[in-house]
Amino acid sequence: MNLTELIEARREQHLAELCEFLRIPSVSAKSEHKPDIELAAKWVADHLRSAGFKTVEIMPTNLHPLVYAESLEAPGKPTVLFYGHYDVQPPEPLDLWTSPAFQPEARDGNLYGRGTADDKGQVHIHLKALECLHQINGKFPINIKVLIEGEEEVGSVSLWDYVQTHKEKLKADALIVSDTSMLARSVPSITYGLRGLNYYQIELSGPGRDLHSGVYGGAVPNPLTILTELFAKLHDKSFRVAVPGFYDGVDAVSASERKALKALPWKSKDFKKAVGAPDYCGEKGFTTVERLWIRPTLELNGIWGGYQGEGAKTVIPSKAFAKFSTRLVPHQEPKKIAKLVEKQIRKLLPKSVHCKFELLSTGKPWVAAYHAPIFQVAQAALQKGFGKKAVFIREGGSIPFVTQMHDTFKIPCVLIGFGLPDENAHAPDEHLALENYYDGIKAIAHFYEDLASL
Ligand code: BES
Ligand code: MN
Ligand code: MN
Question: Does residue 297 have its Cβ closer than 6 Å to ligand 1?
């Protein structure tokens, strides 16, 4: 049996095993899921061992464990580091799932469940590609290091320290990641840019306790009203972020990149269908693709306070809260942006409320050239798996580790995504197209194999 035949023969086995991985509710944001996080880390470690890695470690951190494995038995061959994450986003709202989030189900060519696309399904593609390669050859064709973390969805906080204190251990000729998307169905894609992310929370405190809105209303500050006024002022009429200095240093979109992006097989019809809103909006002067991939943004992610239960409760809340984030692009320094945002918020707020401002996580943007020979190897491997030529894209999401690795080691980072933009990552009914899962295993197996001749 050759590599492709082995992968074909194992389709059902691979899928059944992925379902087992998906049934572990490894939600990193919630402490009640700590035991599931531990279980998922152990699951990954066990499967790395059965894939052929002899050195496998589960490393505790201040929050969730990292799983590390290595096989350095190919002298003279390249060394790559594969990175992914075993943690997932919370599944809520549960009632919007067609089948339960942690009971994976195959329907209409897709596998449904939390983590299918982001990122357990994509991590599993690599585990199975490597396992099949190891079985065919009795060893791996190149030197491979693997780092799978459990904090990606909460900002990869422990990872930064780990990278800084284990530079020698993580050193590699290239970083390989599958935690992004394809541009569209049947368009295999390699991502060369991601936006950075600052995540914030603010708490506005007004009255010392909740007040009867009839007895006090009209003569006291309402923190919820003040919060909504504040956010209304953080964008201008052209949908630009109204924070002085926010765009300082941000590059204009170059004519050559604008042309390359326009040539991509990106369809606004698909985009609109995936979004499903009555109308669209965005920063004036930029195409939708540019707004998504190249321009920085500020988004309100959650807002709460006051009464939300059944019926009416006439109350002026003592406090109001918001979670929000800024997506960042090259030359925006995350810490500096956070200072500018805080300064503007404090300037806009009236004296009648106190504001607690927290920066919960930061991550730098990443954009890189894709001239290194490894990108041609990746393109050729995708051709073998999907029968189509891969395109080079940027994306709007964030993976802090990619920038950390790129800045620390100055190595090529090859982001090969198998998700699709409409697969509901972070939302109910998250799914992964089964064809991309199966073709992904083939493409990735060929990729690792072909890297031996680099
Ligand atoms: N896999 C995503 C990042 C992503 C999604 C990149 C789509 C490109 C396209 C990752 O798991 C993620 O969701 N990251 C978070 C950031 C994190 C710090 C919470 C994000 O982008 O919101
Ligand atoms: Mn992810
Ligand atoms: Mn995610």
Answer: no
Cα 343 to Cα 336: distance, rounded to the nearest angstrom: 11
Nearest CA to ligand 1 atom 18: 155
Give distance in angstroms: CA of 85 to centre of ligand 2.
Answer: 7
Q: What is the amino acid identity at position 86?
A: Y
User: Is the omega angle on the peptide bond into residue 119 within 30 degrees of 0, that is, cis?
Assistant: yes
pLDDT in tens, the chain (454 residues): 999 999 999 999 999 999 999 999 999 999 999 999 999 999 999 999 999 999 999 999 999 999 999 999 999 999 999 999 999 999 999 999 999 999 999 999 999 999 999 999 999 999 999 999 999 999 999 999 999 999 999 989 899 899 999 999 999 999 999 999 999 999 999 999 999 999 999 999 999 999 999 999 999 999 999 999 999 999 999 999 999 999 999 999 999 999 999 999 999 999 999 999 999 999 999 999 999 999 999 999 999 999 999 999 999 999 999 999 999 999 999 999 999 999 999 999 999 999 999 999 999 999 999 999 999 999 999 999 999 999 999 999 999 999 999 999 999 999 999 999 999 999 999 999 999 999 999 999 999 999 999 9
- The pair phi, psi for residue 437, each rounded to 5°, is -65, -50
Which residue in 388, 449, 440, 450 sits closest to 18, CA to CA?
440
Pocket test for ligand 1, best of 119, 148, 153 (most atoms within 8 A of CB): 153
Nearest 5°: CA angle at 339, between 334 and 341?
90
Pocket test for ligand 1, best of 292, 399, 416 (most atoms within 8 A of CB): 399
Q: Distance from the CA of 32 to the center of ligand 1, in angstroms?
A: 23
- Residue 212 burial (CB count, 10 A): 11
Q: Which residues contact 140 (CB under 8 A, 6 or more apart)?
A: 52, 71, 73, 74, 130, 133, 134, 448
- Ligand 1: which of 152, 199, 367, 430 to mutate, judged by most atoms within 8 Å of the beta carbon? 152
Residue type at position 207: P
Radius of gyration (C-alpha) of the chain in whole angstroms: 23
Q: Is 363 in the pocket of ligand 1 (CB under 6 A)?
A: yes
- Pocket of ligand 1 contains residue 179 by CB under 6 Å: yes
Alpha carbon distance 452, 446 (integer Å): 10
Ligand nearest to the Cα of 395, by number: 1
Determine if ligand 1 sits within 6 Å of the CB of residue 118: yes
Q: How far apart are CA 224 and CA 205, in angstroms?
A: 9
Tokens read off for 362: 């930061």
Ligand index nearest the alpha carbon of residue 183 = 1
